[in-house]
Write a structure and sequence with these properties.
- Helices cover 33% and strands 18% of the residues.
- It is an alpha+beta fold.
- It folds into two domains: 48 residues, no CATH class; 40 residues, no CATH class.
- A two-stranded antiparallel sheet has the order 1-2.
- The radius of gyration is 18 Å and the shape is elongated.
Length: 97
């Protein structure tokens, strides 16, 4: 994740996540393909969908697999002066520092 803050100041965080699936049977594969859930998905699965039943182990960031590593993103934003947690708790809109 790279954040370009006002004044062109950049910050970055690298996230590595590994997802290990169980050994899939022919029936697992056929039923998953028939479900159509794989369409339009990076890697042909959505960790928050049916494919989660196939996940044996996940190390790293669950939200990165979904699409955006939230922990790292929030901390980059907080470091740049954006009150993310405060906004979430109060429902207030965040304004640029």
């Amino acid at each position: 994740v790279v954040l370009v803050a006002p004044g062109r100041r950049t910050s970055r965080r690298c996230v590595e996540t590994k997802v290990r699936f169980k050994r899939l049977s022919r029936e697992d594969i056929d039923s998953y393909i028939a479900s159509g859930e794989w369409r339009g998905k990076a890697g042909a699965y959505a960790i928050q969908g049916r494919a989660e039943a196939f996940v044996r182990m996940l190390t790293g960031s669950h939200s990165a697999v979904v699409g955006l590593p939230l922990y790292e993103t929030v901390h980059l934003l907080e470091g740049a002066g954006y009150p993310v947690f405060h906004s979430w708790m109060t429902g207030a809109g965040a304004e640029a520092p």
